[in-house]
Every structure is written in C-alpha cells, then in structure tokens.
Write a structure and sequence with these properties.
single chain, mainly alpha
C-alpha cells in the first residue's frame, strides 16, 4: 500500500504512546520487585506487605502484556510497508537516529520520538537535525549539514520556550507595575543613605510617608526649648 504522511503519523503517535506507557510500567515493576525483595529479606514476617507487593507485580505484568500486544499489532502495520522515522536520544547531547536499533545506543537508551518527521524523506530529516544527525544512521549526510545547529523543535523545547515566555511576561508586568507606582516620573526608585545603610523607596506612597516622618522628626528635634515648654 502507499503510506501517507497522515497515516504514518497516526500509527507512530499510537506506538509512541504505547512505548511511553510500557516504560512507566517497567519502572513501576522494578520498584515493586525491589519492595518485595526488601520485605522478604529484612521483614519476612510482614506477610501482608509481601502479598501486596506480589499482587502489584502481577497486576503490572498483566498491563505490560496488554501494551506489548498493542505494540506488536502496530509494528506489524509498519512492517508491511515501512516508512522513514526519526528518534532523538534524551540527554544533553543526544543524536537523531533513524531507528531505535542503532549500534551506538543501548537497550536502556531513552528516545523522544520525532513523530513530525514520520514518512518524511531522509534529506529533510538530516537537514533539520544538522549536527545532531547520527552519522551511523545517516552516513550520506553532507559535511556542511553536519556542521549546522539542529533546527528540530521538540516538545521539550516548546515547553521550555513557553515557560521562559511566561517568566518574561511576569517579569515585564512586575517592572511595569513598579514603574507605574514609582516615586519619580521616570519610573526610577529613590535611594538615600542613613549612616552606613542605603534605603530604597520604591513607591510614591512610601516616599510621601517617609517625607512626613522626616518632617515630623525635624520639627520635633530642631527646637528643644520649644519642646520643653510644651511639656
């Protein structure tokens, strides 16, 4: 059959979700097995805890088996008429691979499936991957391409960019509010020294309050004879 971009993305989206679920379940299984071994070794009399761990292990294995059936079924669809794929290794300097079976990776390697490139031609993938393209998976990649920064946009990058934009917006809103309430027309704060210490006046209200306090202190300390007569 002739595979369309839409069809390839649909199948790979489902597969990616299955792999993520299986990874989570395998982590939970390892944790449950460790818990069971711990109680069996150190607290063999705590039968209830051991039974709970055993039940959890059984339940997780059943879930993994179900996921494996789904993965197998979807992989059969792919095997009938394979299409191009791209996978980014999840670490600080991870490369983009054409499959999860590259000789440079390991069984424990985690990938981010770049589903947006499913069924794209290899040239498009390599062009966008740039220096992140695996030279084993893409041996024909031109040197000038491998020297360019990656143009691939991942969900992680999108999330980081969104978080940065939100932080920047909050910072700009805070600065705008501070300038609107500042004691000067330019929006700058006022600074004054009092002995060894430097004080900052950030709002007009604080400036007025500080001025009134100083006036009161001046009036009540500048004429000690008058203060004495008022007593």
């Amino acid at each position: 059959m002739s595979v369309t971009k839409e069809f390839a993305v649909k199948i790979d989206t489902e597969l990616s979700s299955c792999y993520d679920k299986r990874w989570t379940l395998v982590s939970q299984l390892e944790s449950a097995e460790d818990t069971k071994k711990f109680y069996e070794k150190h607290y063999p009399n705590r039968v209830e805890e051991i039974e709970k761990a055993t039940e959890k292990i059984t339940r997780i294995k059943v879930e993994i088996a179900k996921i494996n059936v789904q993965i197998s079924s979807l992989n059969k669809v792919y095997d009938q008429d394979p299409w191009t794929r791209a996978f980014l290794v999840i670490n600080s300097n991870g490369h983009v691979h054409s499959s999860m079976d590259c000789s440079t990776c390991f069984p424990t390697t985690r990938y981010q499936w770049l589903i947006q490139y499913s069924n794209d031609d290899e040239k498009t993938i390599v062009e966008d991957a740039g220096q992140d393209a695996c030279t084993i998976c893409y041996p024909s990649a031109p040197a000038e391409v491998l020297n360019r920064p990656s143009r691939i946009v991942t969900a992680d990058k999108v999330a980081k960019a969104k978080a940065k934009a939100e932080r920047d917006a909050k910072r700009e809103a805070r600065i705008a509010k501070e300038k609107a309430n500042a004691p000067t027309k330019s929006g700058e704060f006022l600074y004054f020294k009092q002995g060894r210490y430097t004080h900052v006046i950030k709002t007009e209200r604080t400036a007025v309050s500080e001025w009134l306090n100083n006036q009161y202190w001046i009036l009540n300390s500048s004429n000690p004879e008058e203060q004495e007569s008022k007593k």
